[in-house]
Design goal:
homodimer, 355 residues, alpha+beta, Creatine Kinase, Chain A, domain 2, 43% helix
């Protein structure tokens, strides 16, 4: 398989615009994300539908995408048509969910080329809409998402109850059907050992935290995903506002931690930073986890080395994930081949980062 | 303290000629060493002597060194006149023993500028003579040492018994008074997990093994010191011959292990080698143990990188030990300052090693 032939229409050499690092506070907040769970009115929830009914949902969504002027000619991709590698590639890009890939339902998927908007059909609900943006931008994101939601609702009305709000397959999503989250990089808070205290504060506010690219709550590369837990009894604006306030708080903690580090632990961090550059530039084999951790440390060098930008590091973090790497090089690779190719890619990308 | 002012007469920027790496099998055998324990005839063993008697021994040895044309004008240095830093420096260079430094006796010390021959007065015995050579060269070493031994014996007769041989303070040295050893680098045998089996074979031959720069039997940097245990009932030639045969065997094992590695584990070793270069070139702080281990791994690159020679690595291993490092830079340093200066020194030394 070569790049360009991807069913999803994505370019395996590029990453989503939400990884540009150029959004507000992009040095600390990688991205913002809003996801909406929606179901088509007059139809059963997915768990009670037959194959023909699932096909019907796919068809209906496909038509609505065109009618709402979203798909611009390229409609849904059927998930069964994706190669296992491309499916994994989309999972690594956070465009598909693990549950979606495991399911036996007739599933469809759509993404804009810049990956800012995507949707899954017949995941847990008939529709899961998703928007990504760079940095801390939940308010703008909800603005855009709200408009898309309305456009779609006008061509395919969503299941809605005056009292409960949007109806969803699982009660935990009823109400707004919204999950808003930010992906935030907190190496300073971790290194100053303040992370447990900080995360307790996040949980007390009724938010939830998990690592990214990690199983369960394990965090890798000092990356944390913070999201709302409640969907009922709060408006979308309230959810966005609570999360934005918490994010601003976390940014402040992280800035303070980095300031502390730069006075008290500077030689330790400097050493860690330079070693990471040394290993990334010289290693002949790099696993994806080690790469993630080393690139995470390199974020300390943003602003210090002219060619080291948040966007460049974000891009490398995604392109070095296993499936992304294989599609970047346009071939299936064994784990050992991947580790070698990954080090090639990293070396090339960091060539003009001089220490 | 600045280099050049060292009491021992050594240059803190140079290391002993026995570290040149140019001796036979110098890529695997760092060095050979022969040590003789001798006592002056007609005098009590050290443990039974008074301070004036110890002074007398020092004086007598000093005169004999000139008479035997060994000291060339520069006589014994009194150990109490050495700064703690220079004493540590000489310990790191294997010219003084730990026990010698701890002792309360009146002690004297002499070394040639190239460190090939040195002696301690009033260590456990009145005299401990020591010769170092590059690579596997025990036979040549014994040849030279035998001559020095005879020259000294002719001007200050040594305690000798027709039946037992040379008499020593501790019975474990009676007979030849000789301890012969080689310092050998066995990363291949360690990496292929054959080291335990190999060392058992060494012990079965009545030889003893220990690590270098390590406490007790701990080995660091894959460096092992193999020496004879028996001094009685074997001639010097037999000791030298047994040890030389064992060394040749170990060299063969190591070569086989490296060959195996280069076919089966080549990418693993290659990666380890390049990472070591990356860390040594980029780290801002290096402890002496980490440096030893990284430099040990770099020995795999001898012959692969034009500017990487065994002699250069041997030299760096010694110059980066704590006291050597401080005397190299001509100042006392805190542990953190040492780690920074060590990385400076290493970076400078490896500047023209390009990967």
């Amino acid at each position: 398989m070569i790049s360009g032939s991807l069913k999803s229409g994505l370019d395996s050499h590029e990453v989503g615009s939400w990884l540009s690092g150029e959004g507000p506070d992009g040095e600390i907040v990688i991205s913002s994300r809003i996801r909406l769970a929606r179901n088509l009115t007059g139809l059963k929830f997915l768990g009670y539908t037959s194959d023909p009914e699932q096909e019907e949902i796919l068809k209906s969504v496909n038509q609505s995408l065109s009618a709402a002027l979203i798909s611009h000619g390229r409609g849904l991709v059927e998930v069964d048509d994706l190669s296992p590698l491309e499916a994994q590639f989309l999972l690594e890009r956070h465009l598909l969910s693990p549950d979606f890939l495991k399911s036996n339902a007739k599933r469809g998927f759509f993404t804009t080329v810049d990956e800012s908007f995507s949707l899954m059909v017949n995941e847990e609900d008939h529709l899961r809409l998703q928007m990504f943006g760079s940095g801390l931008c939940l308010e703008n994101l909800w603005d855009s998402m709200g408009k898309i939601d309305e456009r779609l609702n006008s061509v395919m009305p969503f299941s809605f109850d005056e009292r409960y709000g949007f109806l969803t397959a699982c009660p935990t999503n009823v109400g707004t059907g919204m999950r808003a989250s930010i992906l935030i990089h907190l190496p300073g808070v971790v290194l100053t050992k303040e992370i447990d205290r900080v995360l307790r504060g996040v949980l007390q506010l009724g938010l939830s935290v998990r690592g990214t690219y990690g199983e369960g709550t394990e965090t890798k590369g000092h990356l944390f995903q913070v999201s709302n837990q409640r969907t009922l009894g709060q408006s979308e604006e309230e959810i966005v506002s609570t999360l934005t306030k918490m994010a601003s708080q976390l940014i402040k903690y992280e800035q303070e931690a980095r300031e502390y580090i730069s006075t008290k632990m500077s030689s330790y961090i400097e050493d860690k930073l330079y070693r990471s550059i040394g290993i990334l530039k010289y290693a002949r084999m790099l696993t994806s986890d080690e790469t993630l951790n080393l690139l995470s440390t390199l974020r300390f060098g943003i602003g210090r080395f002219p060619n080291l930008t948040a966007g460049r590091l974000n891009k490398l973090i995604v392109l070095t994930r296993p499936a992304n790497l294989q599609l970047f090089f346009g071939e299936e690779l064994t784990p050992e081949q991947r580790d070698r190719k990954r080090s090639d890619l990293v070396k090339r990308a960091l060539k003009n980062v001089e220490a």
